[in-house]
Write a structure and sequence with these properties.
This protein is of the alpha+beta class. It is built from 38 helices and 36 strands. It has a six-stranded antiparallel barrel. The protein has a five-stranded antiparallel beta sheet with strand order 11-17-16-13-12, with no helix packed on it.
Length: 1034
């Protein structure tokens, strides 16, 4: 039935060689025979000298005695090859086989006779029986059936005498080895045969059948002096010979470190591939795992075999030999990005050494007996290696294959799991009895093998599939697993677990910066929002992060990452609810914003110094004296009485500065309170600023309330307001307010300024262009684009966040049925002629929103805004602040409302020891102890107590935005003691019963020495809770 060999057609031409004599037949002369034998000797003994091999050795043969080793690679195919186990087969030493065309540069063909195979092992006998039943013997030798397999060209091996004796090889016998390609059979038909003779299943994992179906190495021995002489020659010209097998080794995949290691792949030159094709050396890939990764043809390259390099020169390709793979059809031209590659053996082949033990054969695993559906193979029986599966051969029992794969995964043997997965890709989608997939196993055991995860992905593993307990793989995995698995699936890292990696994932350009559109897209992927949610995120990014987000901004102390994780708005978004886009609170400052504000404060300090104001020094002589009424002594307890007193103070201030020039404001004021003997070196100015700010914004008499927390200028239609029984023009009041706030900024005073942020945005924009508030079309301020609409609503939110959020819904959420209840009016004012008769619909809603914004932001209060800007820039020129972050002046005025634990720790570091007085006693243990008791009492207080303590000490109840280190002059703590010989004693006028005093001009706090922490805390609390603003309680 099969192909008839040239040997089988000429049985009489084969002459047996015995006892070292050659008996030619009558058709072949003696000279011809001797010529053939000489050619064969050259074939077996010819060696190529290694030229320029990478190992640097000039050894000519791939001998097993060499000790040179290259760097093995354990990556799976196609990045690496192996490591491979070498398994002894049943082909015994001394078994004779016929080799045909041994002189061919393509390699010969080895013929295994039926009788030899049948006698060697049960698996081989089962194969013989199937071939007999199918009459499927493809070759015949001397009229007898045989299996044929291609050989690579033979290569000599040189062994030491001791190695030969250990292997039982005579000293005179020459040894040749070759790679045996798979036997030329229709393995699919043979393995899947159904019939009485085929009841015993073929174990394709056993070394004997693996050797024939996958391939392996074989060593031949030839006895006789002067080289191999046991050959037979055919008259037709093809040369055949009988060779004696010394050993035959099947290979397996052995990630624990089999005897055969290979280097990582190197690219195969197209010229080399072309030569292999021309010589007929390329054979179809017969290993399923290699074929699954795209390999199509393979060839064994002999040690030091010359091959053409990129320049066409002949050089040894590999010192120890190796495999070359083509990932394309040989007839197809090689391109520049070809994946053809070769793998060099890391050391010389040791074919006569101890093979890999076969006791833990994977076939034993495959044939495990099950009881009640449970495998009887325990973890200790799991294989350390697995056979290579031949292509075209079924993988066997799918249930057992799945069971074996899951058992290996439970043992974290990921390389063998990958090996089986490449053999049976469908396992990637299957689950065990608990609903766990291979991906669940990988997550639970923290598999970080990227190649395995990529193989699971490519074979359809579902990353979102939940097991019987409702757990997805991501819920089971630790942080490293989540990171690599999300990367393999092309997903962003987890924002809340790996914010830095998340940022790098979306920063595809590697610039360390995300534009608003990029940030919106990234957040949409995190929160998995619908279409409206995506618009919400776009608007959020355009309004809150119009300049984009840098890596420092995203990951800094006041980071956006923290806001995304902990803010209520994004918590609502995570739960599927759309939160209001705008809120009353100011957005948190980020690191680069704070850095800008530090530089702005430095500019203000320079401006202050230009007019004679120096930190810790007395007020300059040129400062104008302002006489004020006595401040309200009741603190914040009686709001009405405090407002009455504060309004009186505001009236006095307006009257005394009515004719003051801008230069007078810049030179500053010296505040005197009626009934108080004091010199204003800064502390009284702070108290005056606090009370005047309360008079301006403590209620809605002078300014119009907008939103919940803010005030804004009254409309231009209200030309005056009443102050302390007198009518005051709003333009004059608002111009004075601008001067007043600029003066407080120049004096480093913090106040509770509730003038809305929009006023300060206008201040910055008008500072850059004094034509900003000139009468013109308000629409020119905002481009007619989605980004322009977002910026417009963001500006409106700085005035009235509730109205801005409502108008955003008009643009993006409300239906026509809801819009029809709106008309072109806002606050009772028509936005255009006849606006009360014009209904809002989807066609005109953009125009309606734009007219609402323009009306509220610029048109209603243009005169008030202009007066405020003019007054402010008279005291602080626009060039001082115009190039800094918008709203920075407002944030400097407000500072931070609370004194945090971190602020107290920083204040303690500044004061101890550098700010302790007396200087000569600052290192005394009693002074240090008293200071630490004071800060311990500060930490024990709540937020209102801490604010009052700061006001008692520095005259300001708020912390500078750039930190307590920005308080000028530097705070000092004076423990009221004096030297007493080698020790100290209390100052006589400062007994322990006396209360602490705050001196806000110099930011000093005087503290009587106490005997315990409890006494210190009690006296500090009593003083702080009862002091009069701006003055010490004595």
């Amino acid at each position: 039935m099969g192909q008839e060999s040239s040997v089988s057609s000429r049985p009489a031409a084969i002459v047996a060689c015995r006892a070292g004599t050659v008996q030619p037949d009558g058709r072949t002369g003696r000279k011809t025979l001797e010529a053939r034998l000489s050619s064969l000797r050259r074939c077996f003994t010819g060696r190529h000298k290694a030229l320029g091999s990478r190992s640097g050795s000039s050894s000519g043969s791939g001998d097993s005695c060499g000790t040179q080793r290259l760097s093995p690679c354990r990556l799976p195919f196609p990045s690496g090859l192996g490591p491979c186990g070498m398994h002894r087969t049943s082909l015994q030493a001394g078994d004779g086989v016929t080799v045909e065309n041994i002189e061919s540069p393509a390699g010969g063909t080895v013929l295994f006779r039926r009788e030899l195979l049948h006698a060697r092992s049960s698996p081989l006998a089962a194969l013989v029986a199937r071939l007999d039943a199918a009459k499927g013997w493809p070759w015949r030798v001397g009229g007898r059936e045989a299996l044929a397999a291609k050989l690579s060209p033979l290569q000599p091996l040189v062994f030491s005498r001791s190695a030969r004796r250990a292997a039982g090889v005579p000293d005179a016998e020459e040894i040749r080895f070759a790679w045996v390609y798979p036997a030329q059979l229709d393995w699919t038909t043979i393995v899947e045969r159904k019939g009485p003779i085929d009841r015993e299943k073929l174990d394709m994992g056993c070394p004997d059948l693996s050797f024939l179906a996958v391939g392996g190495f074989v060593c031949f021995g030839c006895s006789g002096r002067g080289g191999p002489r046991s050959f037979e020659v055919a008259r037709s010209g093809s040369v055949c010979c009988e060779l004696r097998i010394l050993c035959a080794r099947a290979i397996s995949y052995d990630p624990t470190g089999g005897p055969l290691h290979f280097e990582g792949f190197r690219n195969l030159e197209p010229a080399c591939a072309k030569r292999l094709e021309r010589l007929g050396r390329l054979q179809p890939v017969a290993v399923r795992q290699w074929a699954a990764m795209g390999a199509r043809y393979v060839a064994w390259i002999r040690p030091n075999e010359p091959m053409p390099d990129s320049s066409g020169r002949e050089r040894p390709l590999m010192r120890h030999g190796g495999f070359a793979f083509l990932f394309r059809d040989p007839a197809a031209p090689a391109t520049g990005n070809t994946t053809d590659r070769f793998f060099e053996a890391a050391s010389a082949l040791d074919l006569l050494g101890d093979p890999t033990p076969s006791s833990s054969s994977a076939s034993t695993m495959a044939n495990a007996i099950e009881v009640n559906g449970t495998s009887q193979i325990g973890p200790q029986s799991l294989p350390s290696w697995l056979p290579y599966s031949p292509t075209g051969v079924p993988s066997g029992n799918p249930h057992m294959h799945r069971k074996r794969t899951f058992d290996l995964a439970a043992a974290s043997n990921w390389l063998l799991v990958l090996h089986l997965l490449l053999e049976c890709p469908e396992v990637a989608k299957e689950a065990d009895e608990k609903g766990d997939t291979l991906l669940h196993y990988c997550a639970r055991h923290s598999c970080l093998d990227r190649t395995l995860l990529e193989a699971l992905r490519d074979r359809g593993a579902d990353r979102d599939r939940r097991n019987a307990s409702g757990e997805a793989p991501d819920l089971l995995g630790d942080r490293p697993f989540k990171r690599i698995s999300r990367d393999v699936w092309g997903l962003a890292p987890d924002l809340f677990e790996d914010p830095e990696d998340w940022f790098h994932h979306w920063d595809s350009a590697g610039k360390g910066h995300l534009r608003p559109a990029e940030l919106a897209e990234a957040l949409a992927a995190v929160y998995q929002v619908d279409k409206v949610g995506r618009v919400w995120l776009r608007s959020y990014c355009n309004t809150q992060h119009a300049a984009g987000v840098s890596k420092e901004h995203f990951l800094g102390q006041q980071s956006l990452a923290r806001e995304l994780q902990f803010s209520s708005s994004f918590a609502s978004l995570r739960s599927g609810n759309l939160p209001p886009l705008f809120t009353n609170s100011l957005s948190p400052l980020h690191d680069e914003d704070c850095a800008q504000l530090v530089r702005l404060e430095e500019r203000l300090s320079q401006l202050r110094a230009q007019h004679g104001w120096l930190p810790g020094a007395r007020a300059p002589v040129a400062a104008q004296r302002l006489q004020m009424p006595q401040p309200f002594a009741g603190g914040c307890g009686d709001v009405v009485a405090r407002m009455r007193n504060a309004r009186q103070m505001l009236s006095f201030s307006l009257a005394q500065t009515a004719t003051s020039s801008a230069k007078t404001w810049q030179r500053g004021f010296r505040i005197n309170f009626a009934g108080q003997d004091g010199v204003d070196d800064g502390g009284l100015t702070k108290a005056w600023g606090q009370e005047v700010a309360f008079a301006l914004w403590g209620n809605s008499d002078l300014f119009e309330q907008c939103g919940t927390n803010w005030h804004f200028f009254r409309p231009d239609s209200s030309p005056s307001v009443q102050l302390d029984g007198q009518q005051v023009e709003t333009a004059y009041l608002y111009r004075w307010t601008g001067r007043f706030l600029a003066y407080l900024l120049s004096q480093h005073c913090l106040v509770d300024c509730s003038l809305c942020p929009w006023a300060f945005r206008v201040l910055h924009r008008a500072g850059r262009s004094r034509q900003y508030l000139a009468p013109r079309s308000s629409f020119a301020e905002w481009p007619d684009t989605p980004e322009g609409a977002d910026h417009m609503l963001g500006d409106l939110a700085s005035l009235d966040p509730g109205l801005a959020s409502s108008l955003w819904k008009v643009l993006n959420v409300m239906s026509d049925g809801e819009l029809r209840w709106l008309d072109f009016t806002c606050g009772g004012v028509e936005l255009e002629p006849g606006g009360s008769e014009i209904a809002v619909n989807s066609a005109n809603k953009e125009r309606y929103v734009r007219r609402c914004c323009a009306s509220q932001l610029l048109e209603r209060t243009r005169l008030g805004l202009q007066a405020f800007v003019d007054g402010f820039v008279e005291v602080i020129p626009a060039e001082v602040f115009a190039d800094f972050v918008e709203g920075g002046l407002h944030r400097l005025l407000l500072g931070a409302a609370t004194l945090s634990d971190a602020d107290i720790a920083e204040l303690e570091r500044l004061v101890i020891p550098g700010g302790l007085v007396p200087v000569k006693l600052r290192d005394h243990p009693r002074v240090r102890e008293a200071a630490h008791w004071f800060f311990q009492a500060a930490r024990a207080g709540d937020a209102p107590f801490r604010s009052r303590l700061l006001e008692f000490w520095t005259g300001m109840n708020r912390v500078p935005l750039t930190g307590v280190q920005a308080i000028q002059p530097r705070p000092r703590l004076q423990v009221m003691v004096q030297p007493d010989g080698r020790g100290l004693k209390r100052i006589e006028s400062w007994p322990r019963e006396r209360l602490p005093e705050g001196h806000t001009c110099g930011n000093e706090l005087w503290l009587p020495l106490q005997d315990s922490y409890e006494q210190t805390a009690e006296r500090v609390r009593l003083a702080v809770e009862n002091f009069e603003a701006g003055f010490a309680l004595k």
